[in-house]
Amino acid sequence: MNIKNHHEHRDSSHSKKALKLAIGATAGILVIEVIGGVWTNSLALLSDAAHVFMDLLSFILSYTAILLAERPISDTRTFGWHRLEVFAAIINGLTVFLIAFAIFWHALKRLVQPEEILSMEMLGIALFGLLVNLFVIWKLHPHLENDVNVRSAFLHAVGDALASCAVVLSGGIILATKNNAIDPIAAIFVSLIIVFSAFRIFKDSVHILLEGVPKGLDRGLIIEEVESLSGKNSVRDLHVWNICSHICALSMHVTLSDEKMREQKFILQKIDTILQKKFNIIHSTVQIESEEWLRR
């Protein structure tokens, strides 16, 4: 037990270090892209900065989730503070959506009347941003298997790198062709990426608050696996939901025949193992009932 706890603590420590590095690097590129976007008059850079801002909040949420997981529960909060992550994600989604809409609106106006862009400086800043994104991806990649929060942050970093590629490409085209209309087109493209990502974050967060079935879990498959041990039509009142993005909880009633009641401890242990190994459900409450009890 002590070895396992030490291993989990070490993995958590490494994940936190990687995320702290990602937060620092992303915050730095956010400041540079905002200043650079204003200096070069590039909406594409500002739209990428908005995407970086969304990813920065995601990294902070992931880091916070690890810290919250390490805090002990209390008598008033039996699941701790994990759901704060969901509320923060909703605020994140709404904030970035508004920023993306503002950039999209200004980009449409610039399509009609393009403005002068400092293309060389814009390209240099965009390339620097792409390199930082690739650095963050490189630092997070070794920890993908250890923590679901790091995997989430990694996917955000990949998305940001793709958006940075679009800005770099637009900067190169502007430098080569002197066509300043490319800048608002790139800004619109990145804004659409941001809107899609923000909507997905908002939708997933609301789904968690409404205690919907966690993404990737098949309620029917859970019933099938449990009833392979307990018998056909033995599962009822099954509820499965998310506490936050990476913690699932489950409760259900399992009815056993009189013969199987003698094995109820073994069956309960097997059900618990299946829920953890196959469905990654750690928090489960399974109530065993006898068919004889229900007949009374």
Radius of gyration: 25 Å
CATH topology of the largest domain: Alpha-lytic protease prodomain-like
- Average residue-wise pLDDT: 81
Unreliable spans: 1-11
CATH class of the largest domain: Mainly Alpha
Q: Pairing-aware structural class of the strands and helices? A: mainly alpha
Largest sheet: 3 strands, mixed
Overall geometry: elongated
N-to-C order of helices and strands: HHHHHHHEEHEH
User: How many beta-strand segments?
Assistant: 3
Spatial separation of the terminal alpha carbons: 44 Å
Task: Walk me through the structure.
Helix 2 runs antiparallel to helix 5 (148-177), helix 3 runs antiparallel to helix 6 (182-209) and helix 5 runs antiparallel to helix 6 (182-209). A three-stranded mixed beta sheet has the order 1-2-3. It has helices at 2-40, 43-70, 84-112, 119-140, 148-177, 182-209, 219-230, 264-279, 291-295, and strands at 235-244, 247-256, 283-290. The longest helix is centred in the first third of the chain and has 39 residues, at 2-40. The chain has two domains: 2-209, Cation efflux protein transmembrane domain (Alpha-lytic protease prodomain-like), CATH 1.20.1510.10; 219-295, Alpha-Beta Plaits, CATH 3.30.70.1350. The protein has nine helices and three strands. With 296 residues, it is mainly alpha-helical. The model is unreliable at 1-11 (pLDDT under 50). It starts with a helix and ends with a helix. The chain is elongated.
